[in-house]
Every structure is written in C-alpha cells, then in structure tokens.
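Support request from a user on the community tier.

User writes: "When I paste my structure tokens into the form, the page sometimes reloads and wipes my input. The last time it worked, I copied everything first. Here is what I submitted, just in case something in the input itself triggers the reload:"
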C-alpha cells in the first residue's frame, strides 16, 4: 500500500505567534549558553599572534578558567544575546515578505528567493553591530592586550560592571571609527548570508514539494 505525500509548507498565517516567539527565543538561548564559551575561544585563537597565548582549544579553555573563572568564558555574552532579536526578525521578515510577494506571484521559488534575501539583509543589519561590540568584549583579559580596545578599570581598582564595559567599548569604537566602526565586515556578511539564504529557501520548498512514497 502506498501513500503519496508532500511536506506541508507552514505559512505566516499558520503560525501560533505567541508560542513561536516565546519558545523560539528560549530554545535559541539554551543553545547559545552551551556553545558561547567555544565561540569565545575560537575568536581568541583566531586573533592571537601565532601561539603566543594559547596552544589550542583545550589549553585556552583551561587558561581562561584559571585566570577569570567561568565568567571569563562568557565575556560579551549579555551583549551577544541581543542577536536573538535578529533571529526573530529574520523569520518575521521572511514570512511577511513571502506573504507580500504572494500578491504578485504564486511561485514558491520567487517568494522564497525574495523573502530569503530580504530576511538576511534585515538580520545582518541588526547582528553585525552587536557582533562587533561582543567580539571586542571577548578580547578583554587580564594581562596582555588582545584586541584594538582595552576596557579601563575604575579608579578604585575594581573591574567595570558588564554593561559598563559595553559602554566603554562603544565609546572607544565611536571615538576611533565613528558609526562606521560598528559595521566592519557588514558588506562581507551581506555577500555571504544574502545569497545563501536566497538560494537555500527555494531549494527547501523544491524539496518539500517532491512526492514521497511510503510503503505500508
């Protein structure tokens, strides 16, 4: 016995918006908490000169723990969580753009191509400035300076509170590069993510539209 089926396409009007936004943010946050230390380590390994500070991932993990504790593995995390907004904006832009394009074309390929590119444009416009600030915060460590900017301690010798560090980094970026400093790598990000998203979604809908047979 054979059952011919296609994968159902979920459109904007089918979504339970409240559940989507609440559970989407919660699940993404859980994933972000688990992988963020390795994002920080990767960033430091890419920036360091040769093997001047760390000899590898495990070595970096141990040294950061010894020097700064667990909080050292989460430098810039609070700022980085704002990129969760870009993820929700991506899906919202994608679905609303598909709905808008549907007034002019019923082709899933056309709708997905335009919507995928538009969604990435919006998401990267939000993500890049946040990433720039959070990556500078990742570079903060006791001892040798790693990045372009160094967070200044307060006169009493105590560390600057989390968002105090963020404000300090933002001021230094503005002073050094102006507003353009928050969009370093923006064009490269657009050239990477817009084509990827614009091509991926049409293939997804093409794949979803294929007939599938299940043997009973």
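"...and here is what came back when it finally went through:"
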């Amino acid at each position: 016995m054979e059952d011919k089926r296609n994968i159902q396409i979920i459109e904007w009007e089918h979504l339970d918006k409240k559940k989507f936004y609440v559970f989407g943010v919660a699940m993404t946050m859980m994933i972000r908490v688990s992988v963020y230390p390795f994002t920080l380590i990767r960033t430091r390994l890419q920036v360091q000169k040769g093997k001047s500070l760390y000899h590898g991932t495990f070595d970096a993990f141990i040294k950061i723990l010894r020097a700064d504790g667990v909080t050292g593995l989460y430098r810039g995390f609070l700022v980085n969580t704002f990129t969760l907004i870009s993820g929700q904006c991506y899906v919202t832009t994608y679905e609303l753009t598909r709905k808008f394009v549907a007034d002019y074309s019923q082709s899933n390929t056309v709708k997905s191509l335009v919507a995928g590119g538009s969604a990435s444009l919006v998401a990267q416009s939000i993500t890049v400035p946040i990433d720039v600030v959070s990556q500078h915060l990742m570079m903060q460590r006791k001892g040798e300076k790693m990045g372009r900017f160094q967070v200044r301690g307060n006169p009493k010798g105590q560390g600057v509170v989390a968002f105090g560090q963020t404000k300090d980094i933002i001021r230094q970026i503005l002073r050094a590069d102006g507003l353009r400093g928050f969009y370093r790598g923006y064009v490269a990000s657009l050239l990477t993510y817009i084509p990827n998203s614009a091509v991926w979604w049409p293939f997804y809908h093409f794949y979803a539209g294929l007939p599938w047979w299940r043997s009973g």
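Agent notes: The reload is a front-end session timeout and is unrelated to the input. Helices lie at 17-47, 57-68, 77-80, 83-101, 108-138, 162-177, 186-208. Confidence is low (pLDDT under 50) at residues 1-5, 155-160. Escalated to web team.
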